[in-house]
Amino acid sequence: MPTPVKxxxxxxxxxxxxxxxxxxxxxxxxxxxxxxxxKVPAGPVLIVLRKTNLRRASAAIDELRxxxxxxxxxxxxxxxxxxxxxxxxTTRWEFFRSICSRCDLALAQVEDLVPFFNEAGSxxxxxxxxxxxxxxxxxPKPLAELRGIFVGTREFRIPARRHLEAxxxxxxxxxxxxxxxxxxxxxxxxxxxxxxxxxxxxxxxxIIEAPITRSDFLDVLRLHRIxxxxxxxxxxxxxxxxSILCGLPCVGGNGTAERLAFPAVCGPRPAxxxxxxxxxxxxxDAFWSETVGFSREKTRAELAYGAVSARISALLG
Length: 317
Prior knowledge:
This protein is α/β, with parallel strands linked by helices. Helices cover 45% and strands 13% of the residues. It has 13 helices and 11 strands. The protein is globular and about 65 Å long.
């Protein structure tokens, strides 16, 4: 067994609100999250790269090199639109390439990003999923208490989210099977008007208005039988990770968590095939239990805090 390593996460862009998903790399190793370079302890440091902090991240590498720290880097946002937004500028791209060439290790939360980091100059890149605090999650509700569909996406304006398609298909399934459907509205009046058009025709269509606390969100999620999405942004898979925490299957999407934990019911597959999987999970208890059981085994082996912490220690040992 490798010697456990505490990983410090240096995130200049964090303002102390709800911790970003990427901070789980520190949490799973018992490390800390810092916003001030001067407070970073001795040991390996993961620098979070954001659109607004590339210059500071580049300068931090020079200082950390003087201390003898091992330097890791990771992008705060890894979806297709996040990368375009963060690096689609000549100056930011040049900073990014310089940072890649001077790090010891780049962590790719999405497997597709391994060659991207390498070709940008990283001497070494490893695919490492965002860890999930699986073992400390509350016990999931019994299947008999679960009912309906929760739509996992929420952004109509980002094409790769395919949110409108997801809502349309889920609404059709809800009306046909006569089961509840819940959608979170985080886009204010515009998003709400689109969702209310569905609600007028489906009395089982429920709209949950943002903002909502994370604990309340998970409480709502735990009421449903499946989470449904068509997201194609190749992100780490936040909603699939939340599904795992709640003991639910997540259907559709091509993020890291769903690829690992729900390969039989996630993308890339045509929407009709995914709808068949969704309907089966909604009506076949044995298939539902088999899918959830597989996801729990895969999570323990590859996504849980202990599994990812061991990988980090091995990479840095």
